[in-house]
Amino acid sequence: MFRLLAGTEPELSSGNLQEPLSLRDELRFRRLGLHHHFPTDFLRSQWQSGPKSSIFLAYRWALGGFFGAGVVGCISEYYNNGNFFIFLTNWGFVLCGVTSITGAILVTIYHFKPETWVPPSCLIKVYWACYWTNITLACVIAFAYWTAIYPKDRVLTNPTRVSDLYNIWTHLLPPIFFTIDNFLVAQPARLLHFVYPLAFLHTYGIFAILFYALGGRNL
Protein backbone atom coordinates (compact mmCIF):
# COMPACT_ATOMS: atom_id res chain seq x y z
CA MET A 1 0.00 0.00 0.00
CA PHE A 2 1.12 3.57 -0.51
CA ARG A 3 3.29 5.09 2.20
CA LEU A 4 1.60 8.48 2.48
CA LEU A 5 0.11 7.45 5.82
CA ALA A 6 2.14 6.41 8.81
CA GLY A 7 2.22 2.78 9.83
CA THR A 8 1.64 0.93 13.04
CA GLU A 9 4.67 -0.30 14.88
CA PRO A 10 3.97 -3.81 16.16
CA GLU A 11 6.43 -5.58 18.40
CA LEU A 12 7.27 -8.00 15.60
CA SER A 13 8.03 -6.90 12.09
CA SER A 14 5.30 -7.60 9.56
CA GLY A 15 7.47 -7.02 6.50
CA ASN A 16 7.77 -3.85 4.46
CA LEU A 17 4.08 -2.93 4.59
CA GLN A 18 2.49 -1.32 7.64
CA GLU A 19 -1.10 -0.68 8.56
CA PRO A 20 -2.06 3.01 8.64
CA LEU A 21 -2.57 4.61 12.03
CA SER A 22 -5.86 6.11 13.05
CA LEU A 23 -5.94 9.91 13.07
CA ARG A 24 -6.17 9.84 16.85
CA ASP A 25 -3.00 7.75 17.14
CA GLU A 26 -1.30 9.83 14.46
CA LEU A 27 -1.80 13.01 16.48
CA ARG A 28 -0.43 11.66 19.76
CA PHE A 29 2.38 13.78 21.15
CA ARG A 30 4.93 10.96 20.94
CA ARG A 31 4.57 10.99 17.15
CA LEU A 32 6.62 14.19 17.16
CA GLY A 33 9.64 12.04 17.90
CA LEU A 34 11.91 10.26 15.46
CA HIS A 35 11.93 6.80 17.00
CA HIS A 36 10.95 3.88 14.78
CA HIS A 37 11.04 0.24 15.86
CA PHE A 38 12.42 -1.00 12.54
CA PRO A 39 15.32 1.18 11.31
CA THR A 40 15.81 -1.04 8.27
CA ASP A 41 12.53 0.34 6.90
CA PHE A 42 14.59 3.39 5.93
CA LEU A 43 16.85 1.20 3.81
CA ARG A 44 14.23 -0.66 1.79
CA SER A 45 11.50 -0.15 -0.74
CA GLN A 46 8.01 -1.16 0.30
CA TRP A 47 7.70 -2.94 -3.04
CA GLN A 48 10.74 -5.23 -2.83
CA SER A 49 10.11 -8.89 -2.07
CA GLY A 50 13.32 -9.68 -0.18
CA PRO A 51 15.22 -7.94 2.61
CA LYS A 52 17.67 -6.46 0.08
CA SER A 53 17.24 -5.25 -3.47
CA SER A 54 19.90 -4.42 -6.05
CA ILE A 55 17.28 -2.54 -8.05
CA PHE A 56 16.46 -0.29 -5.09
CA LEU A 57 20.18 0.24 -4.47
CA ALA A 58 20.70 1.30 -8.10
CA TYR A 59 17.67 3.57 -7.90
CA ARG A 60 18.96 5.20 -4.72
CA TRP A 61 22.28 6.01 -6.41
CA ALA A 62 20.53 7.27 -9.54
CA LEU A 63 18.50 9.69 -7.43
CA GLY A 64 21.49 10.69 -5.31
CA GLY A 65 23.73 11.11 -8.34
CA PHE A 66 21.13 13.18 -10.17
CA PHE A 67 20.60 15.70 -7.39
CA GLY A 68 24.20 15.56 -6.19
CA ALA A 69 25.41 16.49 -9.66
CA GLY A 70 22.78 19.21 -9.82
CA VAL A 71 23.91 20.75 -6.54
CA VAL A 72 27.60 20.68 -7.49
CA GLY A 73 26.90 22.14 -10.92
CA CYS A 74 24.58 24.82 -9.61
CA ILE A 75 27.00 25.97 -6.92
CA SER A 76 29.95 26.02 -9.31
CA GLU A 77 27.94 27.99 -11.87
CA TYR A 78 26.11 30.43 -9.60
CA TYR A 79 28.19 30.66 -6.41
CA ASN A 80 28.64 34.40 -7.02
CA ASN A 81 30.90 35.13 -4.03
CA GLY A 82 28.62 33.23 -1.68
CA ASN A 83 25.41 34.94 -2.73
CA PHE A 84 24.14 31.54 -3.84
CA PHE A 85 23.31 30.79 -0.22
CA ILE A 86 21.05 33.76 0.47
CA PHE A 87 18.08 32.19 -1.35
CA LEU A 88 15.69 29.64 0.13
CA THR A 89 15.50 27.80 -3.19
CA ASN A 90 19.20 27.03 -2.98
CA TRP A 91 18.99 25.93 0.63
CA GLY A 92 16.28 23.51 -0.43
CA PHE A 93 18.22 22.28 -3.45
CA VAL A 94 21.31 21.58 -1.35
CA LEU A 95 19.09 19.65 1.06
CA CYS A 96 17.83 17.60 -1.92
CA GLY A 97 21.39 16.60 -2.72
CA VAL A 98 22.39 15.88 0.87
CA THR A 99 19.28 13.82 1.60
CA SER A 100 19.38 11.75 -1.58
CA ILE A 101 23.11 11.01 -1.32
CA THR A 102 22.78 10.11 2.37
CA GLY A 103 19.98 7.71 1.49
CA ALA A 104 22.15 6.10 -1.19
CA ILE A 105 25.08 5.67 1.21
CA LEU A 106 22.88 4.12 3.91
CA VAL A 107 21.31 1.65 1.48
CA THR A 108 24.76 0.75 0.13
CA ILE A 109 26.12 -0.01 3.61
CA TYR A 110 23.03 -2.06 4.41
CA HIS A 111 23.30 -3.94 1.11
CA PHE A 112 26.80 -5.20 1.86
CA LYS A 113 26.33 -5.79 5.59
CA PRO A 114 24.73 -8.88 7.16
CA GLU A 115 20.94 -8.75 7.26
CA THR A 116 21.12 -8.39 11.04
CA TRP A 117 22.95 -5.06 10.74
CA VAL A 118 21.05 -2.12 12.20
CA PRO A 119 22.04 1.47 11.32
CA PRO A 120 22.86 3.86 14.18
CA SER A 121 19.68 5.28 15.67
CA CYS A 122 20.95 8.87 15.67
CA LEU A 123 21.81 8.70 11.97
CA ILE A 124 18.37 7.35 11.06
CA LYS A 125 16.68 10.08 13.11
CA VAL A 126 18.63 12.83 11.34
CA TYR A 127 17.93 11.24 7.96
CA TRP A 128 14.21 10.93 8.71
CA ALA A 129 13.97 14.59 9.75
CA CYS A 130 15.92 15.67 6.65
CA TYR A 131 13.81 13.49 4.36
CA TRP A 132 10.49 14.93 5.53
CA THR A 133 11.89 18.46 5.59
CA ASN A 134 13.21 18.00 2.07
CA ILE A 135 9.99 16.77 0.48
CA THR A 136 7.88 19.40 2.24
CA LEU A 137 10.25 22.23 1.43
CA ALA A 138 10.51 21.16 -2.21
CA CYS A 139 6.73 21.42 -2.58
CA VAL A 140 6.57 24.78 -0.77
CA ILE A 141 9.36 26.27 -2.90
CA ALA A 142 7.84 24.99 -6.14
CA PHE A 143 4.38 26.32 -5.28
CA ALA A 144 5.71 29.73 -4.22
CA TYR A 145 7.95 30.05 -7.26
CA TRP A 146 5.48 29.03 -9.97
CA THR A 147 2.58 31.03 -8.50
CA ALA A 148 4.29 34.21 -7.29
CA ILE A 149 7.71 34.63 -8.91
CA TYR A 150 7.65 33.07 -12.37
CA PRO A 151 7.94 34.51 -15.05
CA LYS A 152 9.12 37.83 -13.60
CA ASP A 153 12.52 36.37 -12.71
CA ARG A 154 13.15 35.14 -16.26
CA VAL A 155 13.93 38.57 -17.71
CA LEU A 156 17.45 38.78 -19.10
CA THR A 157 18.31 41.77 -16.88
CA ASN A 158 17.69 39.79 -13.67
CA PRO A 159 21.12 39.34 -12.00
CA THR A 160 19.95 36.15 -10.25
CA ARG A 161 18.59 34.56 -13.43
CA VAL A 162 19.68 30.96 -13.92
CA SER A 163 19.54 28.86 -17.07
CA ASP A 164 16.33 27.08 -18.03
CA LEU A 165 18.00 23.80 -17.11
CA TYR A 166 18.77 24.81 -13.54
CA ASN A 167 15.46 26.62 -13.21
CA ILE A 168 13.61 23.36 -13.89
CA TRP A 169 16.12 21.35 -11.86
CA THR A 170 15.66 23.48 -8.74
CA HIS A 171 12.00 24.54 -8.96
CA LEU A 172 10.17 21.70 -10.70
CA LEU A 173 11.95 18.35 -10.45
CA PRO A 174 12.47 18.09 -6.65
CA PRO A 175 8.76 17.93 -5.68
CA ILE A 176 8.03 15.52 -8.53
CA PHE A 177 10.93 13.17 -7.89
CA PHE A 178 10.66 13.11 -4.10
CA THR A 179 6.89 12.68 -4.12
CA ILE A 180 7.38 9.62 -6.32
CA ASP A 181 10.17 8.50 -3.99
CA ASN A 182 7.79 8.73 -1.04
CA PHE A 183 5.56 6.16 -2.77
CA LEU A 184 8.53 3.81 -3.11
CA VAL A 185 10.22 3.82 0.28
CA ALA A 186 9.22 1.61 3.20
CA GLN A 187 9.69 4.19 5.94
CA PRO A 188 6.58 5.67 7.60
CA ALA A 189 5.51 9.29 7.49
CA ARG A 190 4.22 11.23 10.47
CA LEU A 191 1.75 14.10 10.24
CA LEU A 192 3.32 15.78 13.27
CA HIS A 193 6.70 15.84 11.57
CA PHE A 194 5.60 19.11 9.96
CA VAL A 195 7.55 20.68 12.84
CA TYR A 196 10.86 19.83 11.14
CA PRO A 197 10.30 21.69 7.86
CA LEU A 198 8.74 24.47 9.94
CA ALA A 199 11.91 24.66 12.03
CA PHE A 200 13.96 24.75 8.83
CA LEU A 201 11.91 27.67 7.50
CA HIS A 202 12.27 29.51 10.81
CA THR A 203 16.03 28.97 10.63
CA TYR A 204 16.10 30.49 7.16
CA GLY A 205 13.92 33.36 8.36
CA ILE A 206 16.35 34.14 11.19
CA PHE A 207 19.24 33.97 8.73
CA ALA A 208 17.47 36.36 6.34
CA ILE A 209 16.72 38.85 9.12
CA LEU A 210 20.33 38.80 10.32
CA PHE A 211 21.62 39.02 6.76
CA TYR A 212 19.71 42.22 6.03
CA ALA A 213 20.24 43.64 9.52
CA LEU A 214 24.00 43.31 9.05
CA GLY A 215 23.93 45.16 5.75
CA GLY A 216 23.30 42.38 3.27
CA ARG A 217 21.31 43.25 0.18
CA ASN A 218 19.21 41.31 -2.30
CA LEU A 219 20.69 41.02 -5.78
UniProtKB/TrEMBL annotation:
Pfam family for this entry, one: Rost
Transmembrane region(s): 57-79, 91-112, 124-146, 166-184, 191-214
Keyword Transmembrane helix: yes
Annotated GO CC locations: membrane
Keywords: Membrane, Transmembrane, Transmembrane helix
Lineage top rank: taxon: Eukaryota
Protein name: GM14654
Originating species: Drosophila sechellia
Source species taxonomy: Eukaryota, Metazoa, Ecdysozoa, Arthropoda, Hexapoda
